[in-house]
Structures are given as structure tokens and as C-alpha cells.
Write a structure and sequence with these properties.
Blueprint lengths: L16 E9 L2 E5 L5 E6 L11 E7 L2 E7 L5 E5 L5 E5 L3 E7 L6 H13 L3 E7 L4 H10 L1 H5 L3 E4 L13 H8 L3 E5 L6 H8 L3 H12 L2 H4 L4 E4 L15 E4 L21 H4 L35 H16 L3
Bound molecules: guanosine-5'-diphosphate, magnesium ion and zinc ion (ZN).
């Protein structure tokens, strides 16, 4: 009689619990359960490297958690931080690009952020802060004319409680964010912290708690974080319908290297509107005869729909993305 075949001992199915990644630091992260409990989790293996906004399945391991599964992402926003390591946020509904009348914003960086959002098919919103600074604001608003013309929502706001203007525009902006998950991006000094503190009453407390939990104090001030925005939600709103802001440091160079140069025009709505009219199907819109994009670039003789500045930014980016390939 043959011995019964030995089966390897299969572990009892353990309960995997769902969670949302609300902060990351290095390889570990902070996960929030549907009940609102937060715990430190470690990804199991290299595969489960997570970013803020990720939905995961985790299991308890001591008093911390282990991430067992990363759920599929709807999208993944690419950017780079000061030390040039890539970092991301996932599953976004909107990217809010917060710039201000002062300090003066870089149009090139604004365009890069917009391209990064378009490439992942995430709707961007531009907010121009400090409308109380009348003169620089008027100038900055004028510089944004091409972005309004190409269909972006450009919201004038004043976040400063010190210098209230008749309509600070914050309500109109909030109406665009309600019930959605929004990544907030912008240069230093544009008002990101002011916005978060205004909409998230406990933001400072939460930030402190996260830093403590991740036990890396000063470093975590530059990490990406998720905040629920109770100010915009009705009590007991379902989890999925709640409003969230993701704060991310800086407005540095965006890692656009994942975008093919030939895709670039499609990520710029003012150019995109005309690429169909070019004579050559593989037109680069830089020098070709019969280029419908070049025909739209404003100059002294013509009054086209593409600003000279935008086309210059396109040409610079095209060059940069082409060089990276060699
Ligand atoms: N005049 C004016 N100053 C503002 C406004 N919003 C924010 N500030 C100021 O701009 C500075 C930078 O704001 P902060 O929120 O720290 O910007 P962050 O670097 O993007 O986080 C602070 O001194 C704010 O008080 C505004 O609407 N008008
Ligand atoms: Mg700040
Ligand atoms: Zn062309």
C-alpha cells in the first residue's frame, strides 16, 4: 500500500484588509483602513512599491502591517523631487497647479506639469493665488491668457486671511474639488500650505502625527501626503465620495522622460487642436512645410491661436525628450 501523498502545508487563509496609502517614506508607508485607523506598513518584496493614493491589501505583522497586494492603478502621476529620485501619486481625479502673482511663476514649469497631467489623462486645474496683490496679479493673469484660451480652468483666488478681497474665489475653486482626489502642485511660496491649512483644520496636527509615526521627523516634511478635506464634505459622506488633497513638495523638474517626443503635441491642447492639419503625418511641428501648428504660431503678420512662448516651450521639451533617447 502506497503512502498517502504528502501535501505541503498550506497556510490558513489570512484576512487581508483593504487600505489606502496616505504617506510614504523610503520603503515604508502609512496605510489608512476604511475605519480611519492608520498604521505603518512595509511592502513585501520589490513588487509592491507603493505611492500615495494607492489602494492595497495588507495583513498585520506584529504591530505594523505588511502589504500583500497592490491594486491596479487608474493612473500614476510622475514627478521628481529635489534629489531627483522619482516619486508619484496614484489614482488622481485632478491635478491642481497652484501658482501665485508673487513669486513670479515659470511658464516652462507650468507647461511641464500640464503635460505630465495630460499624459496620464488627469484633468488639470490652474489656480492663480494672491489676487489681493492687484498689480502683479493683473500681469500674471494676462500671462495665463493662452491657458484660458486652450480650455483650462484658471481660477483667480486669494488665500490670505490678512488681506481679504471682495470675492476671494476660494468657494469657486472648492466647487471644482468636491468629492474628488486632487494632487496639489506648485512652486515654493505659491500658497500650498495656506490652502491645505484653510481646508483641512487638523492639517498641522496630522502632519506632526505622520512625521512621528514614520519616525523620520525632518525628512518627512518633504514627502507626499494625503489629507481628507472635511470642510467640503457632508457629515457621513461615503468614503468614495469624500474630498481629498494630496500635498506634494516643490515644483521641480518633472520626469517627462516617459513621454515619447512624438506624443508631446498631443499633451498640449493648443497644439493638439491643429496637428490633424499638418501635411506630413510625422510632422514634428518644428520646421516642416505645410505644418498647421506653425501656421498658428502668433507673429507680427498673423494672429494665430498658439503663443510664441508655448511653441518655444514645445520645441525645448521636444529637444529634451529626443536627446534622452540616445
Ligand atoms: N498676499 C498674499 N499672500 C499670501 C496669499 N496666500 C498665501 N500667502 C502668503 O504667501 C507665503 C507662502 O505661502 P505658503 O502657503 O507657505 O506657500 P507654499 O510654499 O506653497 O506652501 C506665506 O507668507 C503666505 O502667508 C494670498 O492670497 N495673498
Ligand atoms: Mg508649504
Ligand atoms: Zn506640424
Amino acid at each position: 500500500m502506497s503512502k498517502p501523498k504528502q501535501h505541503p502545508i498550506t497556510p490558513l487563509a489570512v484576512d487581508l484588509e483593504p487600505g489606502l496609502v496616505v504617506a510614504t517614506y523610503g520603503r515604508h508607508c502609512l496605510v489608512e483602513t476604511p475605519e480611519g485607523r492608520r498604521l505603518i506598513c512595509h511592502p513585501r518584496g520589490k513588487k509592491n512599491q507603493v505611492v500615495v493614493g494607492d489602494q492595497v491589501l495588507w495583513q498585520i505583522a506584529g504591530d505594523e502591517g505588511s502589504i500583500e497586494k497592490l491594486q491596479d492603478r487608474r493612473n500614476l502621476f510622475y514627478r521628481q523631487d529635489e534629489i531627483r529620485t522619482k516619486s508619484f501619486a496614484a489614482n488622481l481625479d485632478r491635478v491642481l497647479i497652484l501658482i501665485a502673482a508673487d513669486p513670479e511663476y515659470s511658464e516652462s514649469q507650468l507647461s511641464r506639469a500640464l503635460v505630465a497631467a495630460e499624459a496620464e489623462r488627469i484633468t488639470p486645474i490652474i489656480a492663480l493665488n494672491k489676487s489681493d496683490l492687484a498689480q502683479p496679479f493683473a500681469q500674471a493673469w494676462e500671462r495665463l491668457a493662452p491657458y484660458r484660451a486652450m480650455g483650462y480652468k484658471v481660477m483667480p483666488i486669494s488665500l490670505s486671511p490678512r488681506s481679504p478681497v471682495a470675492d476671494d474665489g476660494v468657494q469657486a475653486l472648492c466647487a471644482l474639488l468636491q468629492g474628488l482626489t486632487t494632487l496639489v502642485l506648485g512652486p515654493s511660496g505659491s500658497g500650498k500650505s495656506t490652502l491645505i491649512n484653510r481646508l483641512v483644520p487638523d492639517a498641522q496636527v496630522e502632519t506632526g502625527e505622520i512625521s512621528l509615526a514614520l519616525n523620520s521627523g525632518k525628512h518627512t516634511t518633504t514627502s507626499t501626503r494625503w489629507y481628507w478635506v472635511p470642510a467640503l464634505d457632508t457629515p457621513n459622506a461615503a468614503h468614495a465620495a469624500r474630498t481629498a488633497l494630496i500635498d506634494s513638495p516643490g515644483f521641480q523638474e518633472f520626469g517627462l522622460h516617459h513621454i515619447e517626443p512624438t506624443r508631446l503635441a498631443d499633451c498640449m491642447p493648443d497644439l493638439r487642436a491643429h496637428v490633424g492639419g499638418c501635411k506630413f503625418y510625422n510632422c514634428t511641428h518644428l520646421h516642416e512645410p505645410g505644418c498647421a501648428v506653425l501656421a498658428q504660431v502668433e507673429n507680427e503678420e498673423q494672429n494665430g491661436t498658439i503663443s510664441v512662448r508655448r511653441h518655444r516651450i514645445y520645441a525645448q521639451l521636444f529637444d529634451e525628450l529626443s536627446q534622452q533617447r540616445w
